Amino acid sequence: MERLYTLDAAALDRPSFVTIGVFDGVHAGHQHLIRRLAAEAHAADQLAVVVTFFPHPDVVLRGLQGRYYLTTPQQKADLLLQLGVDYVITYPFSREASQVRAADFVDVLLKNLRLNALWVGADFAMGYKREGNLAFLKTQGQQKGFAVREIDLVANDGEKISSSAIRRAVMSGEVEKARKWLGRAYSLVGEVIHGEGRGRQIGFPTANMNVWDEQVIPANGIYAGWAWVDGQRFMAATNVGIRPTFEGATDVTVEPYLLDFDRDIYGQQIEISFEKLLRPEAKFNSIQALIEQIARDVDETRVYLQTLP
Fold it and tell me: What are the structural domains of the chain?
């Protein structure tokens, strides 16, 4: 299993089954498609290849800014490789790339990936002005000798899923709905950096995370979830928000409090998941009232997570 950054870098020793898409979030529908592709490719003694894009075409062509992605590029590549594919190619998308004619891109796939079967959704389109739709690709396949297979992005239960719907759910704090559609809890990865030390001052030292500024973060609130540090998993009560009880706090931060944990992890990268929204962020009349509520949040986190696998 290997991640590549250009199509030219691929040196395949066998023909391949290929799927192409953004695959932001690698949700349950993506997983269902890609597991099937990998299984059928390997049964035919061929390679399974995923071609994805970064930046997101919406970001490049529509000029979107701010938090939009459900996964970092590395998270996405790792998740795709875990599904059993042989190669993940993160294709660098740009305005110049959007001008490539669909037939020319097909020729690149044939040359560099030894394309034998292309799996795409019914609404898939690629190339200049999205000319490479399903009908176009089927004609190309007949002319150039590869199969085209139409696949719907649905989960095992037949429910259609979209990255846009998951994005909206996460941003509104509906992390349990997002977990159902993702097939796993939504998570963030980031380096632990020094904050203002307020958590430690009140007896609940938090890990202030430097989260990628283009990745969606959940709505402000307190969440029960897990934290992974050096491959170990710990319970975590995570605050997302501006800490309104403290004067002058305006920046949104992501700060997990790791239960039963006492180690210096500054400078380390950790991952946290969001399993359940415990409550919205609130301003308290006193620090003591805040401390008492955090203690209740921690207890609720422990009880809830003990019910999960």
Answer: 2-150 (3.40.50.620), 184-305 (2.40.30.30)
